[in-house]
């Protein structure tokens, strides 16, 4: 077993499974550029390490992630570019050859939900909550979700989730096929590790070939969608509407868009 701490991203390899833990509970696991860089590095290391057969991403018992750290995001306008750490993370996740599992407890907001679209198996606790409130922050979808979400849940449901940005429960996520399983919150970690170890014991070549056959045909389309989203996201982030929305979020008030109409 070996462990490594990379600025709120903690990794551990044991029994053929690399855990990537988001560990910033005092800030609801809000993701900074440094944390995205840490996760991108962890995924790259997992791909190179022959001892790793399966990757498991998880947060804390009370929170998966609240999404982007808004203050950090505003301080780094380059965060919306294609070379930013967030996109390095998403590309590494998208191109991962080894199975990627996710264990969700508590809230999974924004990219906390959209990153699950790239995972091969997702288990969530009964109290987990999901949301993609990009429009509510005067932004647009990211992580290839404008392509993957309609393919997964259907056009009408995807439109509802992305246009309204409302929260939805683990049971709703299960019913629409966004996740694979719902268990008691206290059992999520145990069940997720059991599933990861089960995969880690399967024939390596067959496991990799099966994932490749399932995913490879979609990857060029996903990358194209991610690039298009990144350009639009950057434009939205630079807009007066988004600055008002994000500032209002930090100031804990309702945004006022009246002067932009």
UniProtKB/TrEMBL annotation:
Organism, as annotated: Pendulispora albinea
Q: Which Gene3D superfamilies match?
A: 2-enoyl-CoA Hydratase, Chain A, domain 1 (3.90.226.10), Lyase 2-enoyl-coa Hydratase, Chain A, domain 2 (1.10.12.10)
Q: Which residues form the signal peptide?
A: none
Which superkingdom, per the lineage? Bacteria
Q: What is this protein called?
A: Enoyl-CoA hydratase
Question: What family does this belong to?
Answer: Belongs to the enoyl-CoA hydratase/isomerase family.
Matching entries from CDD domains are given as: crotonase-like
Q: Please state where this protein is localized.
A: Peroxisome
Q: Where is the major localization of this protein?
A: other
One family name in Pfam for this protein: ECH_1
Would the keyword Cell division turn up in this protein's UniProt record?
no
For this UniProt record, the keywords arranged alphabetically read as follows: Isomerase, Membrane, Peroxisome, Transmembrane, Transmembrane helix
Q: Where are the transmembrane segments?
A: 100-124
